[in-house]
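Reminder to self: tokens first, then the designed residues, so the page reads top to bottom the way the pipeline ran.
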């Protein structure tokens, strides 16, 4: 340490060689072995921007000047730059050049005390060309952002949670259409929540931050994107509302777009009409426009040059060649109505095109239609008569020239380019068929709906089941009812113990499209589609007070040819009705598509909206707009597009056409055969809801939960759920165990009064100073030895033993609630007690105990059969209480929710 000149305020010694190199402004290259010797120097102009390590040689005596330099190196060590952008009724703070300076683009966005950091990086070398842009998006909420630690064993963030996956999709969907085709450098966008104040949601900020990071980076893209959330409180639309405002909002809409168009919307609402949704979209688009304009100004100041030179597109003439080879057969293949034969025909045709263009070579018709090209061929003809030649035309030793035709040279192309072009040409032919012919592959008109069939009660042991089929898309929806233990627990930034009593899980196995594939954890697509269907159905569910069950819906896709998430909505709704859940109405879902530029395919130039799109129309079309709701309003929606954006007028046309489609689907759902039972299954659990005084809850639980566990073991019920407000929920498989548990809890929580008499009570244990007598199941009191007899007793065992039954009277309750009983007070000798009136062999009801207010939609099981039938008509059902005023579900004796 003493030998280090830095600790004495002196600059370190430098070799004259290194010093001279720094002064010359040269850079070393340690990453290209073999190209330059280690001792050689490389001018900065030779350092490439995409593959090699970029090094700016800074003069130590003039570092400030080098930092402010506008040359290439200053892009990587830049000073911080920040800007405030108005969003709604406040500003967001955007800063770049402070954190993550080695990333291609990085930015932090602050709203209140919520901070989201996003970065964009790209690989140095391009990956293999493909039709899918190599973009990956990752979003993570750091628990430290809210001053918490992960509840897991490892105490660190791990696999992405479902809501994080959903936000990843919100970021990915608007970014992807803006990426340039032909750019194959793998691009990664990371977004982290670094601080969360509990008021300002980070998801819309993450969309904006990711869009800014891409705009600042070298990744070539068409437009800058931004995102906002729109809420509706009363009649007021709020841009980026706080979490408190969202609690009262009728709408939760997340919108992303550019300064001129909408790229993505997703959200849910409570049966809002289309007009209100469109108004929210209009307000959101205006907010996005303001953000994008400010970001464009920021990019001009500190953005990096785009790698446009890295874009590699297929040769333009290849499109013409593919159309010449496959045009006629492609038209025939696209007319096949069934998906599997059409897919096989297209696959065989693609292989044929690839073989011709990559192995055999292809000569365009245009190159041979004008006849063979005449070229001179050299040869010597010794026998030709020289007299035929004019003087001076041929000298001795010259060769004679004979015109011959040259064969066209076949052209060869790469297999990847052929595949990319074949896909584009197929999409072009499909669009032309729809626009010019007015018919789709399955023969429908643009507004037509596929044939719908539905069947309920397919699975006898399930609580509710439906097989919903629409064309070649089929969903098997299954409903399972349970208690609170079946609820889904969520570990998020703020609510540690948040649970969901309703959730829908979507499964898309490879077999549903006739393929083989790897089975594992749910994909991002499965999580996203499941959440969309869940949000669509949630508004029709009864409240927990009306229906205390936890509800799980499984949507298993058994066939798929487009709109499988909307089939999950339709099938899930019918399955809920089949399980006896008192839903508020029916919900249907439909997916809308679009051909944006119809003039190219023989149309009038106006966008063509397609109802109930298939898989090929989704892949080859310009939009996928999913809308769920009933005849009058919308409950959930999701739109992503493949073009530069859509306008409000296009969205309005799609929403109105979707409403007409939902009406047709709801009409077909009402024809379900067999129809939903609308009754609780005999295999569903029984749930009894009762209320006791909150201070009595501990008597049910017992020390360390011993008492409640002993009750469960004794009665055989599945669970007893107690809440601090005095609500007790008992879940059982049979009515006998439910009634037994109910009696025990009533006796445990009853409030006895001094003077009450209890007949035929069992002696549970004997001690030296008396006996403990059970006056009610689970409730004991002490009868002192002096109160066991009117005569003197030396030992209790002289008169009584465990198991004997006696009549006792309550004579005292101490401060701890312990009971003192007396046998002597009821003996004939105790004349002073003769006037006391008791309640023989009947435990007292708890003073002040009251049941929960009865709900609607009460069900009971018929006494003569195991089937469950509604007490009254579903729409006008009334509540029924048992004699104690408690409510039960799915039981013989007036069981309700």
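Designed residues (897 positions):
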């Amino acid at each position: 340490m003493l030998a280090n000149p830095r600790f004495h305020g002196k600059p370190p010694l430098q070799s004259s060689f290194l010093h001279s190199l720094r002064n010359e402004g040269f850079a070393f290259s340690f990453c290209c072995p073999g190209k330059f010797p280690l001792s050689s120097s490389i001018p900065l102009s030779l350092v490439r921007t995409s593959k090699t390590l970029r090094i700016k040689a800074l003069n130590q005596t003039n570092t400030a000047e080098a930092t402010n330099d506008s040359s290439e190196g200053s892009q990587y060590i830049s000073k911080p730059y920040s800007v405030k952008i108005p969003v709604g009724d406040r500003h967001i703070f955007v800063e770049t050049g402070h954190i993550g300076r080695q990333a291609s683009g990085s930015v932090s966005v602050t709203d209140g005390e919520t901070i989201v950091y996003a970065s964009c990086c790209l690989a140095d070398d391009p990956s293999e060309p493909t039709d899918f842009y190599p973009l990956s998006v990752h979003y993570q909420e750091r628990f430290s952002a809210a001053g918490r630690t992960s509840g897991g064993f490892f105490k660190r963030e791990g696999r992405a949670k479902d809501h994080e996956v959903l936000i990843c999709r919100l970021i990915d969907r608007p970014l992807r259409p803006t990426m340039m085709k032909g750019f194959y450098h793998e691009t990664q966008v990371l977004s982290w929540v670094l601080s969360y104040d509990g008021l300002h949601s980070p998801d819309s900020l993450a969309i904006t931050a990711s869009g800014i990071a891409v705009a600042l980076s070298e990744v070539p893209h068409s437009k800058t994107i931004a995102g906002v959330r729109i809420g509706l409180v009363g009649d007021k639309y709020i841009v980026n509302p706080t979490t408190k405002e969202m609690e009262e909002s009728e709408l939760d809409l997340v919108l992303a777009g550019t300064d001129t168009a909408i790229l993505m919307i997703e959200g849910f609402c409570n049966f809002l009409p289309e007009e209100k949704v469109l108004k929210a979209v209009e307000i959101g688009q205006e907010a996005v426009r303001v953000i994008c304009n400010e970001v464009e100004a920021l990019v001009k100041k500190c953005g990096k040059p785009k790698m446009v030179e890295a874009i590699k597109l297929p040769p333009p003439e290849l499109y013409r060649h593919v159309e010449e080879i496959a045009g006629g057969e492609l038209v025939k293949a696209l007319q096949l109505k069934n998906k599997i034969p059409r897919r096989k025909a297209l696959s065989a045709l693609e292989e044929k095109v690839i073989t011709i263009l990559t192995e055999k070579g292809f000569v365009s018709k245009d190159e041979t239609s004008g006849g063979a090209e005449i070229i001179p061929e050299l040869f010597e003809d010794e026998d030709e008569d020289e007299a035929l030649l004019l003087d001076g035309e041929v000298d001795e030793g010259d060769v004679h020239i004979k015109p011959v035709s040259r064969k066209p040279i076949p052209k060869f192309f790469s297999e990847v380019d052929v595949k990319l072009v074949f896909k584009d040409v197929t999409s072009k032919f499909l669009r032309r068929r729809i626009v010019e012919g007015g018919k789709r592959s399955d023969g429908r008109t643009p507004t037509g709906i596929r044939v719908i069939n539905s069947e309920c009660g397919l699975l006898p042991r399930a609580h509710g089941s439906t097989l919903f089929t629409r064309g070649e898309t089929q969903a098997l929806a299954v409903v399972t009812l349970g208690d609170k233990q079946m609820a889904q627990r969520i570990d998020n930034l703020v609510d540690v113990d948040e649970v969901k009593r309703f959730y829908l899980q979507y499964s898309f196995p490879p077999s549903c499209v006739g393929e083989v594939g790897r089975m594992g954890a749910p994909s991002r697509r499965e999580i996203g589609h499941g959440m969309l269907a869940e949000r669509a159905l949630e508004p029709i569910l009864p409240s927990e007070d009306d229906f205390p069950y936890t509800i799980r819906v499984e949507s298993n896709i058994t066939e798929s040819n487009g709109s499988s998430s909307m089939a999950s909505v339709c099938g899930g709704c019918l399955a809920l009705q089949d399980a006896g859940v008192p839903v508020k109405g029916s919900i249907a879902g439909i997916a809308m598509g679009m051909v944006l530029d119809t003039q190219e395919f023989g149309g009038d130039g106006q966008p063509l909206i397609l109802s109930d799109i298939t898989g090929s129309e989704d892949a080859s079309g310009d939009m996928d707009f999913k809308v769920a709701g009933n005849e009058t309003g919308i409950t959930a929606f999701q739109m992503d597009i493949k073009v530069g954006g859509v306008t409000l007028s296009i969205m309005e046309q799609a929403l109105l056409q979707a409403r007409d489609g939902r009406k047709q689907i709801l009409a077909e759902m009402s024809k379900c055969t067999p129809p939903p039972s609308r009754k609780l299954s005999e295999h569903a659990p029984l749930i009894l809801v009762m209320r006791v005084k909150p201070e009595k809850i501990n008597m049910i639980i017992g020390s360390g939960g011993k008492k409640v566990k002993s009750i469960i073991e004794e009665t055989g019920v599945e669970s007893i759920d107690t809440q601090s407000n005095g609500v007790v929920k008992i879940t059982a498989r049979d009515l006998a165990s439910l009634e037994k548990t109910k009696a025990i809890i009533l006796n445990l929580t009853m409030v006895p009064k001094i003077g009450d008499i209890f007949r035929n009570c069992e002696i549970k244990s004997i001690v030296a100073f008396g006996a403990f007598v059970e006056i009610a199941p689970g409730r004991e009191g002490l009868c002192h030895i002096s109160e066991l007899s009117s005569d003197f007793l030396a030992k209790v065992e002289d008169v009584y033993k465990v198991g004997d039954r006696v009549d006792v009277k309550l004579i005292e309750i101490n401060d701890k609630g312990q009971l003192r009983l007396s046998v002597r007070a009821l003996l004939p000798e105790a004349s002073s007690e003769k006037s006391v009136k008791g309640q023989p062999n009947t435990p007292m009801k708890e003073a002040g105990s009251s049941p929960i207010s009865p709900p609607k939609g009460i069900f009971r099981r018929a006494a003569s059969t195991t089937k469950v039938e509604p007490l009254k008509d579903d729409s006008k059902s009334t509540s029924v209480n048992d004699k104690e005023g408690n409510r039960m579900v799915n039981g013989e004796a007036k069981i309700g929710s």
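The two ends are 78 Å apart (CA to CA).
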